[in-house]
Amino acid sequence: DFGRSSELAFVVEPSDDIAVQEQPLILYCQVEGIQPITITWRKNGVMIVDSENAFMLANGSLYVSRFQRVRGDGSSDEGEYDCMAQNHYGLVVSRKAKIQAATMSDFHIHPQNAVVEEGGVARFQCQIHGLPEPVILWHKNSMPVNTDNERYTLLPKGVLQITGLRAEDSGIFHCVATNIANVKFSREARLTVSGSHSSVYKDPMILVGPENLTLTVHQTAVLECIATGNPRPIVSWSRLDGRPIGVEGIQVLGTGNLMISDLTVQHSGIYVCAANKPGTRVRRTAQGSLVVQAPAEFVQHPQSISRPVGTTAIFTCVAQGEPPPQITWLRNGQILETSDHIKLKNNNSTLSIYGINQADEAIYQCLAENSAGSTQASARLTVLWADGLPSPPQGVRAETVSATTIQVSWEKPLQNTKEIIGYVLHIRKAADPVEMEYQEAVSKSTFQQLVTDLEPSTSYSFYIKAYTSRGASKASEVTVVSTLGEVPAMPSLFIKVINSTTVQATWEPSIKLGQHEGFKLYYRKVHLSQYTGPVLLASNVTAYNITHLDASVVYEVKLLAYNQHGDGNSTVRFVSLRETVERTVLNPPCDCMKDEQNNKTSTTGIIIGIHIGVTCIIFCILFLMFGYRGRLLMCKNVQEQLSTPQIPRSQRSATGLVLNGATRRDRDDRDLNGKQLDMNELERLFPASPCQEQQETGITSAHSLSAPHDETQISTLPLDEFSIIEEQPDPLPKNPHGSSAAAPAPDHGPANEG
Fold first, then answer.
1. Residue 491 and residue 510 in contact, taking contact as beta carbons nearer than 8 Å
2. Which of 237, 254, 288 corresponds to the end of one domain?
3. Is residue 611 part of a domain?
4. What is the number of structural domains in the chain?
5. What gap in Å lies between CA 643 and CA 141, rounded to an integer?
6. Which of 129, 162, 441, 736 could form a disulfide with 105, with the two C-beta atoms 3.0–4.6 Å apart?
7. Is the predicted pLDDT of residue 126 greater than 90, yes or no?
8. Distance between CA 615 and CA 611 in Å, rounded?
């Protein structure tokens, strides 16, 4: 605030006004700042010269003695006025004040005669244009209408509504329009109330719905809605977007007119009037839009700043309004022209001045304007210049090193070099705007800099500044140089065999290729030295078919990209068509219908195979489970199971395998006559049996039981696989001890039969 008031700023600005014909008009303008201050006025951008009709007062205000809409010479006092103030810091311009003449036209809508039955609704309307907006009052039988009667509703736009008509409402009506310009009377209209109140049912009907309105914030909106029907319909309001209308500032006039006071932008929308038959869902609707405008106002003002020579100054000016305001910048009262070092961004909200110098010192103004109004704000730029700063660096040179590198060199300034703390190299593509510039800092003892990561075949501009603790020198001379061109990179190449005589070369477009004009394609038989080609292809081509090839040899295909700087490195691929020929011979053309049936059959076979495999796995698991269970049962009766005598091969075939079929008497006899099995031998035969340590009786052993194969059979074969066969009577005579006459001789042969 101190910065603004101590320099130059407006305290009072002219405002919009409506002037009366032949009456005086005063436009106010008050400025504060450092004297001397000069104030002048403009109308429609043209300077106003003091005259008998218009002159400036001592306080800076403009006085118009006799306002005239049209003068004898055809000129008019209507227009846009602004006031300008200037001192040695600069010049500022006030907001534009729109001055209009007070007027009133003739009525273009007059009230009409009406005949309405008792209990109905009557509506009269008259319309007239004027500045300011005329106030319309209604008279009945030459007397003002009694506004205390709740059945009489007067709307601001010249509408009179009478509900619940009675016989005494009959009469002659007219309206009176008044503003500072004139007073006018409309034609008369007669209202006749006929008959008595009817009880006949009538559907709801909206006589007049809301009209579209465009207003400014803080004004009042009246949305009309008048409906008839029997029974009398209920009028309700809603927004089309579903948002609530609210209650603050909302009022219902008469039987259904909606009035919204102190409008805001949030009130904008489409409003729906609904006439509902009581107790039912029968309804009629009408709608109208309300647009609320807001004059431009600042959210962020520009601030006065001080910057050293050669630096960047940025002013920010953010405004809001409805519709969104347009922003214009002035420099000392004149429209600011953009250039290489003056840029406007973000819809003119940001003003940037690059590499400022003494000529940029001025007062900068931001003007925000829309259809609802305008406003302005100002800020001053002060350019700092310290004595004893270094002169610009000398002899700036730039030399191209490669396609991406440039070396910049310079010499130290001629004057004031003792306080230099370093140099700053400013780099920019020559075609880019100033704001795209970037910098690289260099120590004070370095007089060259290698700038890398540049783009090939591109022009760059360079300049240098010397810096001290008190500021920077002026910029050196600008030098422009271009990087070298660069050949394209290697393309990605893929080869696809189409048939026995044709292959297709394809490649992918890529930014990694760099700038290229097209491609060159070569191919040859590998045993030859001469290539066929080049085949020149455009840069947008990504495939090429090579035809009429020999299927019996191998081919080499080579692709490269080229530009004005030469050919890039090539990508090489080898391809043979021999396999394609062999596949063609071995695999004749397919019968599509047959193949389709085969595919279906193959699919069915795969599914069946899967089911069979799963079934086999389940059976294997069950086999293992029952085998383990059978082994436990055998361990439980291991003495009985392991004492079975070996049966001669001839008897085995006749009577089958006898397991655990001998009687206890036979077993006892064998225990007495046979050889007892040593415990160590049992452990050797059945190392995995958990019942070995519990065996307390001798077990008759046969030589065949000592075979490892028998051990495996007994330990893994499930019990369900054994056949328990009752032993047939032995026909041989019994021995004196009552046992079998012929004990089976030990079989020293293989014991794994049966």
1. yes
2. 288
3. no
4. 5
5. 141
6. 129
7. yes
8. 6
Which pLDDT score, from 0 to 100, does residue 200 have?
Answer: 79
> 161 lies in a domain?
yes
Q: What percent of the chain has pLDDT over 70?
A: 78
Query: Does residue 737 have a pLDDT over 70?
Result: no
pLDDT digits 0-9 by tens, 669-706 = 444 344 343 444 434 444 444 443 444 433 333 333 33
- 8 Å CB contact between 457 and 487: no
Cα–Cα distances in angstroms (integers) from residue 549 to residues 253, 530, 532, 552, 629, in the given order: 93, 15, 12, 9, 72
- 225: number of Cβ within 10 Å: 28
3-state secondary structure of 213: strand
Residue 433: asked if its preceding bond is cis (omega within 30°), the reply is: no
Q: Is residue 682 part of a domain?
A: no
Closest CA to 557 of 570, 572, 547: 572
Instruction: List, for residues 151-172, the tens digit of each pLDDT value.
Output: 999 998 899 999 989 999 999 9
Q: How many CB atoms lie within 10 A of CB 552?
A: 11
How would residue 664 be classed by pLDDT, with cut points 50, 70 and 90?
A: very low
Among 522, 542, 577, the domain-final residue is 577
Specify whether 380 is located in the same domain as 393: no
Are residues 417 and 323 part of one domain?
no
* Distance between CA atoms of residues 161 and 683, nearest Å: 121
d(CA 164, CA 187): 25
**In whole angstroms, what is the distance from residue 29 CA to residue 39 CA?**
9
Of 257, 205, 242, the residue nearest 227 (C-alpha) = 205
Same domain, 207 and 274: yes
- Domain of 477? 387-482
pLDDT value at residue 653:
37
DSSP element (H, E) containing 620: helix 592-636
pTM: 0.56
Place of tokens 């409805």: 322
Considering the domain architecture, whether residues 246 and 148 belong to the same structural domain is answered as yes
User: How far from chain centre, in Å, is Cα 63?
Assistant: 57
pLDDT at 665: 41
Give the residue with greater pLDDT, 493 vs 686: 493
CA distance 12 to 5: 13
Does 378 share its domain with 355? yes
610 CB-near residues (< 8 Å, 6+ apart): none
- Look up the CATH number of the domain holding residue 549: 2.60.40.10
pLDDT for 481: 93
- Nearest CA-CA partner of 189 in 141, 121, 157, 136: 141
Contacts of 337 (CB under 8 A, 6+ apart): none
Of 661 and 139, the one with more pLDDT: 139
CA 504 to chain centre: 41
Neighbours of 20 (CB within 10 A): 14
Residues 6+ apart with CB under 8 A from 613: none
- Token pair in block for residue 301: 């003002």
Query: Are 111 and 253 in the same domain?
Result: yes
What the block records as the tokens of 209 is 């719905």
Distance CA 163, CA 229 (A): 12
Give strand ranges (E) for 261-418. 269-276, 283-300, 305-308, 313-316, 318-322, 326-331, 334-335, 342-345, 350-353, 362-370, 373-384, 394-400, 406-411
- Based on the domain organization, do 124 and 264 belong to the same domain? yes
> 569 and 434 in one domain?
no
CA distance 497 to 551: 11
Tell me if 640 is assigned to some domain.
no
